[in-house]
Write a structure and sequence with these properties.
single chain, 2 helices, 83% helix, rod-shaped, mainly alpha
Length: 87
């Protein structure tokens, strides 16, 4: 399961009911806190992965654009040299 799938799923944890009601309420509050922490952690992981992918995409596009510019420049220079020798 990927982080995206995990972050889209709803996490429901059912507390174990012990001997008394007081304990059950305590367990529920701890469980809610743990669920909230887990959800926050998964969201942070998802956000960090998304930012990393966006940065990698931007770097790849920049590298591609520079390669195209280099190619066009060398093509222009070859044509200029050819025109110089033909004159």
């Amino acid at each position: 399961m990927t982080v995206t799938e995990i972050s889209k799923t709803t996490i429901k944890l059912v507390p174990y009911c012990g001997t008394g009601q007081g304990k059950s309420m305590q367990n529920t509050s701890h469980l809610n806190s743990a669920t909230e922490n887990l959800t926050d952690a998964l969201f942070d992981i998802h956000t960090e992965d998304k930012k990393t992918k966006e940065k990698d995409t931007a770097k790849r596009r920049l590298k591609t654009r520079r390669a195209i510019e280099d190619y066009m420049e060398s093509k222009r220079l070859r044509e200029s040299i050819g025109d110089y020798y033909l004159d």
